Amino acid sequence: MLEQVDVDKKMSKDEYEKKMESLSTRLGELQRKCREQKIPVMVTFDGVDAAGKGTMINRVIQFLDPRGYRVFTTGKAGEEERMRPYFWRFFTKTPEKGRMHIFDQSWYRGVYEGEIGEKDATEFEKMLIQDGTLIVKFFLLISAKEQKKRLEKMEKDEDTRWRVCKQEKENNKNYAECLKRQDSILVHSDIAESPWVIVESTDKLYAACKIVSTLVTRMEEALQAGRSPQKEAAGLPETEECFRNGVLHGIDLSKSMTKEEYQAEKKKLQKKLRSLHNQMYLKRLPVVLAFEGWDAGGKGGAIKRLTQAMDPRGYEVVPTASPNDIEKAHHYLWRFWEKFPKAGHMAIFDRTWYGRVLVERVEGFATESEWKRAYREINDMEEQITNAGGILLKFWMHIDKDEQERRFHEREQIPEKQWKITDEDWRNRARWDDYEKAVDEMILRTSTESAPWIVVEGNSKYYARIKVLKTVVDAIEQKLKEMS
Predict the structure, then answer these.
(1) How far is Cα 209 from Cα 27, in angstroms, rounded to an integer?
(2) Per-residue pLDDT, 66
(3) pTM recorded for the entire structure
(4) CA gap 99, 33 in Å, rounded
(5) What is the Cα–Cα distance from 195 to 348, expressed in whole angstroms?
(6) What whole-number distance in Å separates Cα of residue 85 and Cα of residue 348?
(7) Under a CB-based contact definition with an 8 Å cutoff, are residues 85 and 384 in contact?
(8) What is the C-alpha R_g of the chain?
(9) Residue 230's pLDDT band (boundaries 50, 70, 90)?
């Protein structure tokens, strides 16, 4: 792809000014229209070293309303970014609906450097596209000779000398080899909805005009299409037959434990967890605990017994409510990526990203295509966590209908527990069968080798709390052994 490109294309200043007069005005108009239609736009600039990414970004933003865009430097990862899964620094920077975010390097840099695979990068991109994001990808190209000339010029200038590093000089010496690797990545990630745009960048006027012209065309196409989340349902089989009387149907809820047994086990396990929490920090092991379950299923009680044993500076409990306006303006997983822990810390989610395939599915807050697509998106996200060396434990706190009713009435009768019961809890209970089917499908579709679901038999609170504690202790212990 790249070897055939004529990098020396040129444009006269007169022609540039003539074309840009109309293009620049049009780009500003399209930015406003995208804001009105709530279309998020991501623009990425990749390319060979010294091709002029910063210069081109500067040319583009001159024609934009500064209140509607943001530029991100995403080259070398900072310390905070290195302590989290690779895509954390990109997902947390995705634009809300109607805004434009510009990146001076894309996630494909991670493919080039061997941090992630090509499939990881393209799946991330497709997920955003399917959610309605317009992605425009530029690759700026100059010849080895031009690259060497620019590097030498920068090195001679005191103001730009710091930008030339040893690696860039090595890349210039090995230009053909580097280009071959970049070419392979471009070929395998040339997605139909977001194709690569190769920008011949020897002449800066020509390059700037091509970039702005491309942006105008792509934004016009998106506005014409009325960019919105795509409707593919990912080819899932019908759930009515596949998941009737599924996982939850066979759970033995008679398991129990005496108070004396519970107190003895709790003391032993919490002591272990206290020690493991310190080791976890020293070894820089990130841990994510995800709690789902029936209303009154015991999530809060299980979480409390975990946190009693740990230093509060090393964990965060993340309660998940209905999304606010800012969260609604992003991809539904954005708010969870924001809360994923850095290495050595723990995040405990009280309700999770699985709301998309549970309450949003059952109550109709998500379209069928959205919740069906979510199984793959969630599996991909969780794989990012475990591939980065983290632990992810997902608990379903399971009780039966009779036990739930008993706990509801208990909450209504005890003043200090009345805040826990709402009309919504009773409404959800009336749709128990619909939720049970959704839970069965959720567990079967998202229980993976690296992030399996743990169904906790919860009719006995004592038994449930000890099972959660023991599962967490065993998982951290095992992971620390593997790391030593």
Answers:
(1) 12
(2) 97
(3) 0.91
(4) 11
(5) 39
(6) 17
(7) yes
(8) 26
(9) low
- Above 60 in pLDDT, residue 238? no
Q: Which long-range contacts (CB under 8 A, 24 or more apart) does 14-21 make?
A: 16/205, 16/206, 16/208, 16/209, 19/209, 19/213, 20/208, 20/209, 20/212
Q: Which pLDDT score, from 0 to 100, does residue 239 have?
A: 46
Rounded mean pLDDT, 189-208: 97
Asked if 425 contacts 419 with a C-beta cutoff of 8 angstroms, the reply is no
Q: How long a stretch of residues is the chain?
A: 484
Using DSSP, state whether 146 is helix, strand or coil.
helix
- CA-CA distance, 52 to 178, in Å (whole number)? 17
CA distance 158 to 396: 60
pLDDT digit string, tens, across residues 297-318: 999 999 999 999 999 999 999 9
Give the number of other Cβ atoms within 10 Å of residue 57's Cβ. 19
What does the DSSP 8-state code read for residue 194?
A: B
Residue with tokens 């997920």: 127
> Could you give all domains of the chain from N- to C-terminal order, each with its CATH number?
13-225 (3.40.50.300), 239-483 (3.40.50.300)
CB burial class (10 A; 0-12, 13-18, 19+) of residue 147? buried
Helix axes 175-188, 118-130, angle to 10 degrees: 40
Contacts for 462 with CB less than 8 Å, ≥ 6 apart: 256, 257, 258, 259, 261, 262
Please, which pLDDT band fits residue 174 given cuts at 50, 70 and 90? Answer: very high
Q: Is the pLDDT of residue 289 over 70?
A: yes
Tell me how far CA of residue 241 lies from CA of 80, 236, 361, 437, 444, in angstroms.
46, 12, 17, 10, 14
Characterize 158-177 residue by residue with b for buried, 16 or more Cβ atoms within 10 angstroms of its Cβ, and e for exposed. eeeeeebeeebeebbeebee
Whether pLDDT at 477 is above 80? yes
